[in-house]
C-alpha cells in the first residue's frame, strides 16, 4: 500500500490514507460550532489530510466531558454543516467522533450526574458517578444512533464511535471500573455488550450512507484495566457483525492514566494552571503520580497493534507517533490501511502536503505536550507564534 494513494473506507473514497485524529478542540463555548473550530479543521484539510475528525461530539448532555463541548442536537446541525462544507471545499472528508464520556464527564460543569459502569469518584467534578441502569444503557445506545443520523444531516462523511479511554463504553470494558454482577459485568462477553450494542445501533441507523469507524483501547495502561486479549474479543465482535469499516487502535485512560496515550514530556505547571482550585494545587503536589511520563518513540503503539493486525481482517488505523514519511511507510508495510496524526498537525497543519512533496520532510513536533493543557482554551501548539 502507498500512503498517498486514494483509499476506500467503507462507502467512502479518501484522497490518501492519512487521517487527522480526534483531539479536543476547546473552541465551542456555547456547545456549538464557531468560526475558530471551522478554521481548526479547515487548515489540516487544506494541508493535505484525507480526512479530519471533529472531537468531541457527545451524544447526550451528560456525556460531555465538560459543559462547553458540542452535543449532538438539531441546533448543532447548521454549524456542523458549515464546518463540513469548509472541509469538503479543501478536498478532504470529515468525520464526527461520537461518544459518551461516562465517568470522565465533569458532573459539576455539566450540572447533571455522570454515569458509569460502576461507582467511581471523579476528582474533576468532585463527585461519584451514578451507576448506569439498563434503561440508561438503552437510552445512551439510542442516542448514539440519533447522533449518527444528525451527523449525516450535517454533511459528515464518517462517524467515529468512541470506545476508548475509559469513557462510558470503555468503562464497561474495564475489569477495574466494571465490577457489576448483572449481565453487563464479569466475563468479557458481558462487558462488551455496551460497546457492541452501540456500534450495532449506529450501523442500523445509517447503513452504508457514511463510513463508520471505532476508536478502541488495546490496553488501558492501568493495573486491573482492559488488556489486549479482551480488547481483541471486542474487535473480533465488531468485525464479525460488520458494524464498523475500520478500527482505530488507541490506549490509555483519561480517568486513570492519560499519558499512556500521549508519550513524551509532561508539563505539570502548565497543566495545573489550566485548572481551578483545589485541583490546581493537587496537580502541582501529586501530578507526577497521575500524569506519568512515558518516553516518546516513533510509532509507539505499533508493537501492541501488530497483534490486532495479525488476528483481524478488518481495516486498521495506526495511531501514535506518526510524524514523518518513514513511520507512515512502516505502517503501510506492516499492513495497516490508514495512519492517524494529531499533535504534529497542531504545529504544522500543512505537514502532510509537505511530506507528499518531499519524503525527507521532518516534523517540528518535539513531543513536549505543552499543547495538552491548551484544550480548555483553544487547542494549539504553544511553540507556534501567535499572529500579530
TrEMBL record:
Q: What is this protein called?
A: 2,4-dienoyl-CoA reductase
Q: Which GO terms describe its molecular function?
A: FMN binding; oxidoreductase activity
Keywords attached to this Swiss-Prot or TrEMBL record, sorted alphabetically, are: Flavoprotein, Oxidoreductase
Q: Which Pfam families does this UniProt record tie to the protein?
A: Oxidored_FMN
- Output the InterPro entries linked to this UniProt entry: Aldolase_TIM, NADH_flavin_oxidoreductase, OxRdtase_FMN_N
Q: Which residues form the NADH:flavin oxidoreductase/NADH oxidase N-terminal domain?
A: 3-231
Q: Which organism is it from?
A: Actinomadura mexicana
Gene3D superfamilies for the chain? Aldolase class I (3.20.20.70)
Q: What is the lineage of its organism?
A: Bacteria, Bacillati, Actinomycetota, Actinomycetes, Streptosporangiales
Amino acid at each position: 500500500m502507498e500512503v498517498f494513494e486514494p483509499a476506500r473506507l467503507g462507502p467512502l473514497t479518501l484522497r490518501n490514507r492519512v487521517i487527522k485524529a480526534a483531539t479536543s478542540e476547546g473552541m465551542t463555548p456555547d456547545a456549538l460550532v464557531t468560526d475558530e473550530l471551522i478554521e481548526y479543521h479547515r487548515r489540516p484539510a487544506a494541508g493535505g489530510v484525507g480526512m479530519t475528525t471533529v472531537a468531541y461530539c457527545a451524544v447526550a448532555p451528560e456525556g460531555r466531558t465538560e459543559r462547553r463541548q458540542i452535543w449532538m442536537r438539531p441546533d448543532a446541525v447548521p454549524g456542523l454543516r458549515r464546518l463540513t462544507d469548509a472541509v469538503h471545499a479543501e478536498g478532504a472528508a470529515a468525520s464526527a467522533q461520537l461518544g459518551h464520556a461516562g465517568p470522565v464527564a465533569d458532573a459539576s460543569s455539566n450540572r447533571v450526574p455522570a454515569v458509569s459502569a460502576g461507582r467511581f469518584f471523579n476528582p474533576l467534578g468532585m463527585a461519584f458517578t451514578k451507576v448506569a441502569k439498563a434503561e440508561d444503557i438503552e437510552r445512551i445506545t439510542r442516542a448514539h444512533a440519533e447522533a449518527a443520523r444528525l451527523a449525516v444531516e450535517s454533511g459528515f462523511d464518517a462517524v467515529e464511535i468512541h470506545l476508548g479511554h475509559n469513557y462510558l463504553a470503555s468503562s464497561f470494558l474495564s475489569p477495574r471500573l466494571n465490577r457489576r454482577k448483572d449481565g453487563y459485568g464479569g466475563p468479557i462477553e458481558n462487558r462488551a455488550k455496551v460497546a457492541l450494542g452501540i456500534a450495532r445501533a449506529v450501523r442500523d441507523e445509517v447503513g452504508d450512507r457514511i463510513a463508520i469507524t471505532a476508536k478502541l483501547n488495546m490496553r488501558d495502561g492501568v493495573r486491573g484495566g482492559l488488556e489486549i486479549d479482551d480488547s481483541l474479543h471486542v474487535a473480533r465482535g465488531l468485525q464479525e457483525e460488520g458494524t464498523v469499516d475500520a478500527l482505530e487502535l488507541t490506549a490509555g485512560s483519561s480517568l486513570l492514566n492519560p499519558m499512556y496515550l500521549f508519550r513524551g514530556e509532561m508539563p505539570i505547571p502548565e497543566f495545573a494552571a489550566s485548572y481551578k482550585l483545589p485541583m490546581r494545587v493537587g496537580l502541582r503536589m501529586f501530578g507526577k503520580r497521575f500524569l506519568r511520563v512515558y518516553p516518546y518513540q516513533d510509532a509507539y503503539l505499533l508493537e501492541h497493534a501488530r497483534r490486532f493486525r495479525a488476528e483481524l481482517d478488518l481495516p486498521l488505523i495506526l495511531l501514535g507517533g506518526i510524524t514523518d514519511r518513514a513511520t507512515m511507510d512502516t505502517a503501510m508495510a506492516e499492513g495497516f490501511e490508514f495512519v492517524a496524526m494529531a499533535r504534529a498537525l497542531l504545529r504544522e497543519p500543512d505537514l502532510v502536503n509537505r511530506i507528499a512533496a518531499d519524503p525527507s520532510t521532518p516534523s517540528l513536533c518535539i513531543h513536549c505536550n505543552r499543547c495538552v493543557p491548551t484544550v480548555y482554551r483553544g487547542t494549539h501548539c504553544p511553540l507556534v507564534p501567535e499572529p500579530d
